[in-house]
Amino acid sequence: MKKNQIEMYWDVGSTNTYFALKLIKPLLDRHGVELRLHPFNLGYVFRNNNYELMKESKAKLRNRKRDLMRWAEKYGLPFSIPREFPIKSSRALRGSLVARRHGKELEFVQKVMDRYWEKGDATIAEYAGLRPIAEELGIDPDVFEALAASDEIAAELARETDRGLERDVFGVPMIIVGDELFWGKDRMEFVEDEIKRRAVEASTA
């Protein structure tokens, strides 16, 4: 990994990934750091660990929702809980890999997250809902869908997810700076400290 890059594993079904993408931007700008994204099929991981979010206690789910709204209020973000949740995220994850080939990965991910977590647009679970986003980014929607639905992209998504698991990614957002892993939207101070520490090391090497 280049010293001016940090990495983030993400899934569109993760509320905390929405916030992390918003909160990490000022940090990137301050330090001139680039963000490298990795799609992580959280649904696949959950199924293989027999975990179902919506089977958590009602008290915990209520608290989780209120806590998310506190974050939205604190940072002035137009976040809302979509009426349709959870959704299948694999098509959006595949789409990001197609956008990567066009140099538009971050823009694609940001638009997908905003559509779902700000506008409640659950159509992004299907290619029909992703095609307009591709077109907005200058990617031919027919080419986009054909490649996103291909075995090639399916295999690439599986590799990204498996590689994440090999690197001890157990959930998203997972931010990686060098060999240090930071899980969650509320780890930005630690992420920035690690960026600064590595910058000092590089300058004295």
TrEMBL record:
Transmembrane segments: none
Gene Ontology MF terms: isomerase activity
SUPFAM superfamilies recorded: Thioredoxin-like
Family: Belongs to the GST superfamily. NadH family.
Isomerase recorded as keyword: yes
Protein's recorded name: 2-hydroxychromene-2-carboxylate isomerase
InterPro entries in the cross-refs: DSBA-like_thioredoxin_dom, GST_Kappa/NadH, HCCAis_GSTk, NahD-like, Thioredoxin-like_sf
